Amino acid sequence: MRDQAGLRRARRIGIGAVVVLALAGMNGPWLYRFGTERYHRYKIDQPGYKAANGHWDVVEFPREYRQDTIHAVLLHTGKVLLVAGSGNNQANFDARKFDSRVWDPVRGTVRKVPTPNDLFCTGHTQLADGSILIAGGTKRYEKLEGDVTKAGGLMIVHNENPDKPVTLPAGTRFTGKANGRTFVSRDPVLVPRARKNFDRGTGKFLGTTAGLGRIYVEAQKSGARYETGTQDNYRIQGLAGADARNTYGIAQKLALDKKDFQGIRDTYEFDPVAEKYIKADPMHEARWYPTLTTLGDGRVLGVSGLDDIGQLVPGKNEIFDPGTRKWTYTPKTRQFPTYPALFLMQDGRIFYSGSNAGYGPDDVGREPGIWDVASNAFTELPGMSDASMLETSGTVLLPPAQDERFLVIGGGGVGESRLSSRKTRLIGLKARNPRFTDGPALAEGTRYPQASVLPDDTVLVSGGSKDYRGRGGSDILQARIYDPRTNAFRRVADPLVGRDYHAGSILLPDGRVMFFGSDPLYGDKAGTRPGTFEQRIEIYTPPYLYRGTRPSLSGGPRTIARGTSGTFTSRHATGIRKARLIRPSASTHVTDVDQRSIALDFHASGDKVTVTVPKNRNLVQSGWYMLFVDDGHGTPSKAQWVKVP
Question: For the whole prediction, is pTM greater than 0.85?
Fold first, then answer.
């Protein structure tokens, strides 16, 4: 550390010498820029400026602990789980170099965690016992057109036998009846038995409907001459007799086209105390870019993602039971784009804002609405402006959560579109006829905005980029605080680091906000150099922490059941004006459906504050929460961790 301090001193001395030379050489513009920057640094470090605008600080881990963080989850220990997996790095994937870190923002320590699989582009959420459910990830990286050497694609395997299913092992060969070309499967596939159909009125047997299985196949050899041009039926080698007659494949064109990412079925629980991954039963469907949403009974809904052949999961959603650690399919299917923003409502239904991370057809599952998972009924919600630019938009449940109001922020066109939206949209689901209306406009079109709910009932919105993955040097180095009461943004101190794709933010227990990640497409404005993943963390300290003394909060129970109360000690009890339970975040890809701030009834007397947790389990899901109290100036205490069973 002394050597580093010496280097910094040497650097400052060197800068001073350059200033003198600049004066001698009359290097006016450079000197102006240097002087302006130095004055800016001086200005933003002044107490008055911080009290009005907050302050940003950069945290850089020692080199051996740095990683390309894609996912971040706040643990009830106060530490943060940072997950990279392969970190959007093909070389790491090929070498099976998968990374996770646990960072303690109070002590400043960081440790490596053995990571069992490529949890790049996984889904995650908080479980009732404080464990983190992590499901899905990467089986194969995408291959762009031109990089694909073997023709391949989707093979639909048909089983017309109603008496038994068929399992085909990895390496099964499929030969086209018309084209004569042979393709090989990379994974096993289970093909269910055919379904017998009967007339409901008479009971007459009407025939069978083949059971279907999907598998990715590719040519045995490289080259364009192994591509196929049209659909064909395929014989399955190794089958004989009735199996050969009843089981066959059908594939459309198998070509050298771009191949999308493929997902995995693997599921893990991360233990925040032992700081290790524990394997659970796998999902039925492989998923890459899935959303996990916790339900009121503690189970977890898993939705969307790209499957093990690189196609959007065809609406087969499933639910994880923490008691059995097993997944079951939902009764009916409904398809969404990847990483859909799905929030549990107070009546148990699911609100879908339309925000998503991108993969999926333009015309499937893009409309905002309210989804009843049990009945599969979906009610579309009108009024969304810039409805074609909800990809890479952010959605946040505004505080307090009881109001059931949502803010949808920015977004862009589908895929690598250059279009981006300045719109914010508001909707209150408690209205008789809910409808989106426009909120205050952003300074410019914004994709990938990071948004965190603060304990004073405001929302910090920062970062993002105007173009796809920061293309053209379009990162937005601005931050604003949105106040739901006034429906207005207020610009605050500018961040120091650009954040676009693969970035996120998380509220910490001390009231600060951490920002992680960013994966720009290019490293320069002209797009001539590849981008570099941003490994630094940045911490924003909001204005409320520069206003002097913050209210204290200590003691009290570690567990408070819904509908019951807990009493805590505060030297500033008589000055407390609000109490909030804030669910810790699980953030990735502009998606954080965990965060919510719940207003608590409270009573203050002497040096005691008694808070009461609402009864609704859909409003207050079981799990760990940060309990904050605020004074009349909006200054929050440090959080007390409270478990709601």
Answer: yes
